Amino acid sequence: MGAPYLENHDQPRSLNKFLPKGTESSLVAAKMLATFLLMQRGTPFIYQGQEIGMTNCAMSIDEHDDLHVFKLYEWGLQHNYDQQKMISYFAARSRDNARTPFQWNSDLHAGFTSASPWLKINPNYTTINAQEQQQQADSLFSFYQQLISLRLHSEIRDILIHGTFIALEAPENVIAYRRVLKDQWVNIYCNFNDKNEKVNSHINKLYLSNIKDLNIESEHIVLNPYQAIIFK
After folding, report:
1. Measured between alpha carbons, how far is residue 69 from residues 62, 63, 75, 93, 137 in Å?
2. Is the pTM of this model over 0.90?
């Protein structure tokens, strides 16, 4: 049994890391990544802020706190690297991206503190915060709750906790796998493409989809861009 994860304190945010640029704000794509993670075998780890879709935070060099960034920056200056390119690199890959204060609400400093935080608050805290998402039935936070409920309280609970992992054939941009326990199984398909993808399968029972619409063509399922489905 493993410990799958998409984020931790030493890596940038998963929405920026695993999705094309410009897609990090897509609720559908964020839910797809959540499905990909939480349906896998093992004990999944959810890093703080991942469940509400926190993203990388652009910072000036002075706003960083990671010593590794400062060392790389000095090294780059010594080797005549373009300063703006280095800042852009840090914006995408700095560990500080995952260390910005948790975004609790839309109040001052995202409700994290009344003092000055050690790192910059991501400006998107006014729209991406826990309080806002707890009030929305279709939020990313609510979708994480649905996935966790499948693991803990559904008829496929034992399959998801104890079942083996089997990779399934699928188009290049679709990650598909099956969880199997004895004679019981469940399929998970995740479309990482911004275009429709057709998969050769059929659905007897749908447990969860991050998109309400489900397209069926004869013996094929047509996945919408960034759609994820859990079914047997």
Report:
1. 10, 11, 10, 10, 39
2. yes
